[in-house]
Amino acid sequence: MHVHSLQCRRPFSPTNSPNAPPSSTHSFSSCSSAPDLPLCGRYLDEEDRRVLRKAIPVSFGHIPPYALVGLITFGTMTQVHELGYTECSKSYVFCGGKEYASKQIQDMLGLSSPARAACRPGGVSAYRHTRVPSMQSLACRERQVSLRCTGVALSVTVGLLETTYPNTGARIMLFAGGPATEGPGMVVSNELKEPIRSHRDIEQDSVKHYKRAVKLYEGLAKWASNNGYIVNLFAGCPDQVGLLEMKSLRNFTNGVIVLSDWFATSNFQQSFLCIFNKDDQDFLEMGFNATFDVQTTKELKVSGLIGHVISAGKKSACVGETEISIGQTSAWRLNAITPRTSTAVYFEVATPARQALQPGSRGLIQFVTHYQHSSGRQRLRVTTIARNFAESGSPSIAASFHQEAAAILMAEISVFKAEINDSPDVLHWPDCMLIRLCQKFADYRKEDPSSFRLSDNFSIYPQFMFHLRRSQFLQVFNNSPDETAFYGFTYP
Predict the structure, then answer these.
(1) Are residues 338 and 250 in the same domain?
(2) CA-based nearest residue to 96, from 31, 159, 155, 49
(3) Pseudo-torsion of CA 209, 210, 212, 213, nearest 10°?
(4) What residue numbers bound the domain in which 379 lies?
């Protein structure tokens, strides 16, 4: 009879390469890096072409070697390049004047068959010698206005990603060397006699392509955001490229906007590389498919959120009746999230009728953020804060006033109002709110302006409102529509 002691254990094999469990290898991991799809206009100046041919491959060196990449170029046609094909330069061509449905894109790319759709290409490290030749197709700009089917190119890109990686974080980077002049989404024709639209043209409703272009890009933005894709817009042109028409792509997906005269400028090159900044652990400072949930106690209600998000449609008990921007929900989705992402959440105090708050009572707010880290892992961050309630007229209200934070929140509402309404009343709204604030918290004697005094907590708030009222965020004078849209993008 053999007796085995529990104190005598058989050691495991060493965890080296031959003996490593399959689950520890990358091929068996459930973590994946987001696909990266550069989308380049073909008609560029020689210097811009040289910069992009260098910048895009350099950016691939900043992402993990197993990350997935692709390349799509567009001019009169849209070309989807097959980077893994080494025999010759191979691409799939789409007509620039035609609008494609998702099923058509899937069929034309040969992704309808389950066997082809199941194939997954290798990471970016496998294409170091095949992706650079594909950049040779970027042609120089001719003297006439070039044809660019930007809308079709974006549609094909989103359709390709939806077929291969649905509901997965992915980043689309559009490099526009000029306005869309061909097919769906065109901003202006290629006739030199037709100038691109101005603010006055839009106000007078005399822009031929504006409404159709806005409708198309809004549809693309919803299509991309519902799948978790991010759209980055890089404009390298001294003229307008149609950022105003494409603003929904940024608003819905929380992408990046860079506006420069040429791609050869340091403004573009430095901004482009900043997207690939890394943290102390050598991970990219970016997250994907984030959800932002707000929970409160019964005394507080969520009025809404201002930011580049979409509603998650969660109407919980903490949703208030007052609606500010994206309201009627307590949860939102952000396709992209970085350490610099900011949103403004607005609340209202809601108590039962004729029932006062108990002295010393506190309201609790909890922010729950869930996202996919650039390492591929899911992360959850929960922040809970408590704030004391105060009766109307209590000195603690003025003592706790944070004028910098208040200025930002008021500016967010002002910019939001200006985007959805071009009435002159929008410009007067910050002034009206400032007057109401001064009536409530300032010390003064009627008919005696010299007696007006504000405490230190409020002293510079009027200056913030003064400069906001006259800033490019609310004023369009001497700005093109694209510049106005760009300033609205960069504020939050």
Answers:
(1) no
(2) 155
(3) 100
(4) 286-389
